[in-house]
Specification:
By secondary structure, this protein is an alpha+beta fold. The protein has one domain. Helices cover about 20% and strands about 25% of the residues. The strands form 3 sheets. A 5-stranded antiparallel β-sheet has the order 1-2-3-4-5. The longest helix is centred in the first third of the chain and has 55 residues. It is elongated. The relative contact order is 0.16.
């Protein structure tokens, strides 16, 4: 009597295993891509939300302040810090850097507080301290999250998208408020309009990713578009504000 038995040969099992492996590999690649897109969207969304919240806050203060906004600069603990005063509220800031980046002594980059008595923008907060307000101001807070740098901040009548801001000591309504934020480490960021004298690593077209220094920005800080770009996000906002008082 002849037995009629069926089954898989070793070759068939190898082919089936290979096909399954390819399918799993494709699924893994797709899932990684989806995860990267999610992280990228989250980075962009958080950066944009922060910029909108800051602009909204400053806009409200400019609208309701009876005094004109003032601008100034000062050197505190060997760090050049800029500042705006709006109705007694002081905004002290430095551009295009993170705390500790390139060996700096900063602990904050965009600090809001209320100085005791008169707000003088030529005496900004000491951003090298864990509490920049010290005993001379109250209600201090850092306005942007860790790993986020302030790429531009200007209140005036003429605003550019980079670090250049044409300021006078006293500003008047209507105000043009401009802010730029960039989330991510320096190797993920670049200048989309570098000047001839700018370090090559700042250029978006440069392949050299070592020694990034974003202190000399001629255009906009943007994401470079390399590995890890999902952890990079930028936002630029401009608005015009009329004082109501």
């Amino acid at each position: 009597m002849k037995n009629n038995e069926t089954g898989f040969t070793i070759l068939e099992l190898l082919i089936a295993t290979a096909i399954l492996s390819i399918i799993l590999l494709l699924v893994t690649v797709v899932m990684i891509s989806i995860g990267s897109l999610y992280n990228k969207g989250l980075s962009e969304s958080n950066t944009q939300d922060t910029a909108r919240n800051i602009v909204s806050q400053i806009s409200s203060q400019l609208e309701l302040s009876a005094d004109d906004a003032t601008y100034g600069q000062g050197t505190v603990s060997n760090v050049n810090v800029s500042a705006y005063c709006i109705g007694g509220i002081r905004y002290s800031f430095v551009l295009n850097t993170l705390p500790g980046e390139n060996g700096n002594t900063l602990q904050h980059v965009f600090w809001k507080d209320v100085p005791t008595g008169y707000c003088n923008p030529n005496f900004p907060a000491d951003l090298t301290q864990s509490n920049p307000s010290g005993a001379s101001a109250t209600n201090g807070e850092e306005l942007i999250s860790p790993s986020t740098r302030l790429t531009s901040f200007c209140i005036g009548s003429e605003v550019t998208v980079n670090a250049t801001c044409n300021n006078s000591s006293t500003l008047s309504s209507p105000y043009v408020v401009s802010i730029g934020l960039a989330f991510g480490s320096a190797d993920l960021l670049c200048d989309n309009n570098p000047s001839p004298s700018e370090p090559p690593a700042n250029n978006c077209n440069a392949t050299n990713l070592s020694g990034e220094n974003l202190s000399n920005i001629n255009g906009q800080v943007t994401c470079r578009g390399k590995t890890g770009d999902e952890y990079c996000g930028t936002s630029y906002l401009n608005t015009v504000i009329d004082s109501r008082l």
